[in-house]
Amino acid sequence: MPVELKPKKTTVAYYQGCSLEQMASEFDVSTRVVCDALGVELVEIPDWSCCGSTPAHSYDPLLSAALSGRNLAIAEQQGFDVVMTPCPGCLKALKGALKVFKDPNKREAFLEILQMPFQGNIQAVSNLQLYFETIGTEAIRNRVTKPLTSLSIVPYYGCLISRPPDFMQFDDPENPISMDRILEALGASVPEFPFKTECCGATYGVTRNEIVGKLTGRILDMANRVGAQAIAVSCPLCQQNLDLRQAQVNRYWRRDFHMPVLYISQFMGLAFGVEPESLGIDKLFVEADSLLDILSREGERDQSVGGKMA
Amino acid sequence: MERVHTLAIQATSDPRFIGEVERASGQQISHCYQCGNCSASCAYTYVYDYPANQIMRLVQLGQKDIVLTSKAIWLCAACQACTTRCPCNIDVAKVMESLRVLSRQEKKVSGRDIQLFYDEFLKLVKRFGRVFETGLLPLFGMKAKKPFTDMDLAPRVIRKGKLGLIPHKVKGRKHVEGIFERFEAYCSRREKDKG
Question: Which structural domain range is residue B176 located in?
Fold first, then answer.
């Protein structure tokens, strides 16, 4: 039995956002499992509401700030100084609210619309920030029981995780490496991936489907070219475009991509020895059975090697 | 002959426009020297009517109408590549966002269906406190007269049990609704002060 690691307990407020409640439910499930395994307690913000996402930004950044501000204000009332969200869109909105609050020309209007006590003594971080900066790759590596040694995985970061740099204040805007390092800690091989931050087509899947067809297709093609067996993502919208819409992309390009697209937390969970069902692997549209087969074959091989040694 | 064009630009120039955009975005548009990094970085240039650097130039030239009715500002996905790479430290994506807000205020939106999608999204948030994905697509499809939007995906999504049939209603949804109402009241007051 591996030694149970008991890291210092960290407790953060958790804001999963609307996507993780519905289309990206496996991102929510796997994030909770992985945080629990790493000794991080996630406390869901009670009665949280939508951050407003892109529609609120396009309406008025002040509306976006107030809608997100409600969640920050509740978390602050509960005594938290850090709120973690796995959704980069939510993170942008939460950070945007803090920026508006700190702007002396906008604070008054913000508070008037919000109508809640708010001190602004709270910080918003991403799941990756928590894993990479607070927990660290060493602690992640120590938790691995089933290394992903035989898998070649490229990390796709998308637009917002590290951009714009002054605003997100995390990782490198042009060549982010946090997911690369996490995947390496899980034992996977991580080929150089030039399209780490190329846009996937964002929200245009519904209104301009051919844009997503074109842009997401380029990303899948590049992943294929560098020899990846799967893509790791950390954004529900990127995942939706790459996974759910992969069949539409195939029609657009007349290609036959069959590239599993997993959330980074799903890969972490698999490497931590968590059962695939507890990580929502069955919720993926492009089946990940081929990956699971490779992993279980490897598990059997390791066991037989271990058996001989004993 | 080229002068005709020059004259037209002068005739349609609104010199207050650059100030309006600078105030709304907090960015100094005059700093743009047309290096073209934004357009080269932009994944959407191929669908734009004016590439990002031309939008910046048109703002400098006070071409309010051309800019606010352009397709480009509504096709910008706010991916931040332009902002990240601007050597003049202009937050170009923020400028594009401010232009979307202004085009809405001036009722000059080119991407009507995109605006409609956003509006339907916000209506759901105002009503329930969270966005209800199962309801959003049919509502948009009906109103945009594109009832078959993403119909190919529906059976697969249902099979995976990913779509709830009943929207989650936030307990504090009255407060969320209040945010929308106070925001609208604030906007109309701001409008009056301007006028």
Answer: 112-194
